[in-house]
Amino acid sequence: MQDLTSIGIVTSEKVEFDNKLHLKSGAILDGYELVYETYGELNENKSNAVLICHALASNHHAAGYHDDDSKSIGWWNNMIGPGKAIDTRKFFVIGVNNLGGCHGSTGPASINRETGQLYGADFPMVTVQDWVATQAQLADYLGIHEFAAIAGGSLGGMQALQWTLDFPDRVRHALVIASAAKLTAQNIAFNDVARQAIITDPDFYGGDYYSHNTVPRRGLRLARMLGHITYLSDHSMAEKFGRELRNGPLGFGFDVEFEIESYLRYQGDKFADQFDANTYLLMTKALDYFDPAHDFNGNLREAFSVARSNFLVLSFTTDWRFSPERSHAIVKALLDNELNVSYAEITSSYGHDSFLMEDNYYHELVKSYMKNIHV
């Protein structure tokens, strides 16, 4: 039976920008490319655009599937489509692969125009502010002055927040899901352990592994396994895997015995086949650096004093990596600035990954909010 809520086949597009891009780090790119996808139709007034900002390991492919692979379902396909929470019959939805990414946009595996060689370790650090600046240029290219909404979970939620600070007059609504205004020390520690797993892999070669025709697979695999543990809750792991053994009795060795071990190794292997290690390093550093209150002596209320958007802030009860307390801090800062804020703490057993899951209450909440956005 045909899925009437599916976007169906989608095609990625690429745009090249020749202007100099001044990054937060002080580095300058002479030009760059962004890969993006769009779903739905832009209305005559260009007032129905919604930008989807991706998280650490995601990309521009948020919904639908590619014609050469029917299994290549977009990472937020359960949220975006005809009749879904972000309804493509009403909205023109844009997904973009961020600068520094490894799915077509300019990144470490791209050619450096100055040298004619792959950037590798020479690719500059990027920040959430840099991503927002390039997304704004993409919006200009598409003729979109103002977004009806900008939405994202986790690192994507940070980008939505940054948009309301850097371009307050270009965002009417921001959906900030399972996110935070800055990482905790524990989160930074997790990211550093993941980075060290990659950097200390003998096949990393200081980030220039491309020229050695290899990848730091072991390090990238370990980084993903560690990250995946933090995205799940204890309850969800216990419910899904428990202490189940794969093959009967204990083997009294170090091969895979428990189902959870098998799962983590599978996820690590899969990720190492699909993601670039240098990009992973850049993305985790962007997470670490994000702190809009830094220039305001840690005062989040002052940081958000320029914001003009309406906000939907969502958190999940078992998300211990981006806990509800982090969302509470965002909500308080927004309310202190007398902004229009809707907030919900959603009961879920899936930990940080909850924002990716198909949950009826969660999706109906987002759908109700989006229905009230006038285009």
Explained architecture:
The chain folds into two domains: 13-182 and 291-372, 3-Layer(aba) Sandwich (Rossmann fold); 187-284, Rna Polymerase Sigma Factor, Chain: A, CATH 1.10.1740. The chain is 32% helix and 14% strand. The chain has ten helices and twelve strands.
Give a quick summary of the entry.
By secondary structure, this protein is α/β, with parallel strands linked by helices.
Main features:
375 residues; alpha/beta; Rossmann fold; Rna Polymerase Sigma Factor, Chain: A; two-stranded antiparallel sheet; 12 strands; 32% helix; 14% strand
Q: Which structural category fits the helices and strands?
A: alpha/beta
How many separate helices? 10
By CATH reckoning, the class of the largest domain would read Alpha Beta
Give the uncertain stretches in residue-range form: none
- Distance between the first and last residues' Cα: 32 Å
Q: Mind telling me which CATH architecture of the largest domain this is?
A: 3-Layer(aba) Sandwich
Order of helices and strands: EEEEEEEEHEHEHHHHHHEHEH
Number of domains: 2
Helix content: 25-40%
Largest sheet: 8 strands, mixed
Number of strands: 12
Q: Any idea what the CATH superfamily of the largest domain is called?
A: Alpha/Beta hydrolase fold, catalytic domain
Strand content: 5-15%
